[in-house]
Amino acid sequence: MSAEQDAIDERIQEAAESGDLAELRRLADGGSSDAADQLIETATELGALDELRRLAAAGNQDAADQLAELTEE
Question: How confident is the model at residue 73 (pLDDT cuts 50, 70, 90)?
Answer without folding.
Answer: low
